[in-house]
Structures are given as structure tokens and as C-alpha cells.
Write a structure and sequence with these properties.
Helix content: 40-55%
Number of strands: 2
Shape: elongated
Mean pLDDT: 86
Order of helices and strands: EEHHHHHHHHHH
Strand order of the largest sheet: 1-2
Number of helices: 10
Largest sheet: 2 strands, antiparallel
Structural class: mainly alpha
Low-confidence stretches: 6-30
């Protein structure tokens, strides 16, 4: 099971503005203002170039080289945005994403750093956070976790329509994942698309999703139907 927009559970950090519950989640921020990278010197958003070690974060063979990358560049202090391992935080997280472009935890960390510093291109990073997501989706378009993270970021910067597109793709890619439907339902509620929210809620709860938040929001809006 992947993680609701408000929670950090286990391996994945996902964020949202629909109501943070866990103290470990990224603080809610409605339409956060994130500074763009300097317009006078744009960096092309290049496709991923294969490296060794590196590759697909979800592939067991590629992951054999993950330990050495994380040991020197994606330490717990880097992931927690405390301090860099070999230089600026953006550089170490960026190096990890240069090697494993769909590294879920590194994407989440770069997203948090960009939002925290209100800078789409954090200090030391080679690309903007938008580009890191684009590179990841081009590299592995069927990675539902990347889509969910991208949608969470878009929601945090006030682009709900684009966020819905990413979360819909995540739910399509993982139709048996109740959390994908729950996340999508929360966003539909925010957009007052109650029929879609209710359908997503029923899918999530029929699969055994435990949190009542989505149902409670629909009840409060007078839109819940058993």
C-alpha cells in the first residue's frame, strides 16, 4: 500500500494541502509560492543518461548499486534535510536522482527542499524540481509512486488540475491500490467534484482502506452515499 497525501508511513513521503495529520508530514501550504530558477540561464531538462551504479529504482538488478550511492550522497541527514553529505543538500539529492531518476525518497526529499526553501531549483541542484519529476516520468512513465509524488507537489504549489491528472494516472496504474483512490478522492473533494470523490471513496473503502477522512469530508458536505 502506498501512502495517503497527508502521511509519512514506511518508505514513502507524500504530501498535500488537504489536511496534514502526521507530524512527520510536510507542512500544509495552500498554493505555496516557490521561486522559479533564474530566467536568464535556463538549464535544459535532459533525459536520463544511464549510469553504473544507477537505473530504475524499482528494478532489483539496478538496485544492487543503490547502497554505494546512498551511503555517500543520500544519508539519513540528507534525506532529513539536515545537512549535505558531500556538499549542499540539493547537490547530494540531485546526484542521487542523476543516478536513479525515479528514486521515490530522493524525489520526495528534493520536493520538500524546494518547498521549504521556496526555490524550484534548490542550491546545488542541477535541475529544477519540476524537471526532476519530468525526467522521472519520462524514464519510467508507469511508476505510480512517481505520479503520486508529482501530483502532491503540483497540489502544494497551487496547480490542482495538473495534480488531478497525475493522481488519476497513479490510480490507473495501480487500480488495486486503495491509497491511490483515497488520495484522488481527497483532491476531488477539494475541487467539489463530489460524484468522482464518492466513487473513489467507495473503491478505497471496498479494498479495506482504514482512514475515515475522505468519508468524513463527504458526509460534512452532504455528499456521502452508502
Amino acid at each position: 500500500m502506498s501512502i495517503p497525501l497527508q502521511h509519512h508511513i514506511g518508505r514513502y513521503m507524500l504530501v498535500g494541502c488537504i489536511g496534514c495529520i502526521s507530524a512527520m508530514a510536510l507542512p500544509c501550504m495552500a498554493a505555496s509560492t516557490v521561486k522559479a530558477a533564474p530566467a536568464f540561464a535556463p538549464t535544459p531538462c535532459d533525459d536520463y543518461v544511464p549510469h553504473k551504479p544507477g537505473g530504475d529504482y524499482t528494478d532489483p538488478i539496478d538496485r544492487e548499486g543503490l547502497t554505494v550511492v546512498e551511503q555517500f550522497h543520500f544519508t539519513p541527514s540528507v534525506e532529513g534535510l539536515i545537512k549535505g553529505a558531500s556538499g549542499p543538500l540539493g547537490g547530494d539529492i540531485g546526484y542521487t536522482l542523476d543516478r536513479f531518476p525515479n528514486h521515490h525518497r530522493a524525489l520526495a526529499a528534493m520536493m520538500k527542499l524546494a518547498l521549504r526553501d521556496k526555490n524550484r531549483k534548490p542550491h546545488g541542484a542541477h535541475y529544477t524540481i519540476d524537471c526532476y519529476f519530468e525526467r522521472a516520468t519520462r524514464f519510467r512513465p508507469n511508476d505510480a509512486r512517481v505520479r503520486t509524488l508529482f501530483g502532491s507537489y503540483l497540489l502544494a504549489v497551487g496547480q490542482p488540475d495538473a495534480a488531478v491528472e497525475q493522481l488519476e494516472q497513479a490510480a490507473t496504474l495501480e487500480p488495486s491500490n486503495p491509497t491511490a483512490h483515497y488520495n484522488l478522492g481527497l483532491l476531488y473533494v477539494q475541487k467539489k467534484q463530489y460524484d468522482k470523490a464518492r466513487a473513489s471513496a467507495h473503491k478505497a473503502y471496498e479494498m479495506g482502506f482504514p482512514l475515515p477522512g475522505l468519508k468524513n469530508k463527504l458526509v460534512a458536505a452532504g455528499q456521502w452515499q452508502d
